[in-house]
Design a protein that fits this description.
single chain; three-stranded antiparallel sheet
Length: 110
């Protein structure tokens, strides 16, 4: 199933996989493409001196706010896409130190 507009194309794909206990479970991934990814990449946060992490986090929702995907909450979507807006040291730090601790967008804001 594909949802499409000028800003985003989202394709939902179901597949079967094993869980941590070896049981077969059905999972779903959403493959996302679109011009909004360019906006995210144009506002990439590197973690360099002089960059403001709080400013980056507060600007990010404005880019993804117009996007609504059936079956995916806005909170989940933001958290899934946010790492795309990071690169270099900021990406490394976030994926190693924070990604498992942040479960809601409010967690991110704290």
């Amino acid at each position: 199933m594909a949802e499409q507009n000028d800003y985003i194309t989202a394709t939902r794909k179901n597949f079967v996989s094993n869980d941590n206990e070896g049981r077969m479970v059905e999972k779903c991934i959403i493959e996302i493409q679109g011009t909004f990814l360019e906006k995210i990449r144009n506002d990439t946060f590197y973690g360099n001196d002089g960059e403001n992490a709080y400013e980056h986090i507060n600007k990010f929702p404005k880019i993804v706010e117009p996007i609504k995907l059936n079956g995916l909450t806005q909170d989940r979507f933001r958290l899934s896409i946010f790492p795309v807006s990071l690169t270099g040291a900021a990406y490394e730090w976030f994926t190693k130190e924070c990604i498992c601790l942040i479960t809601t967008w409010d967690d991110m804001l704290e």
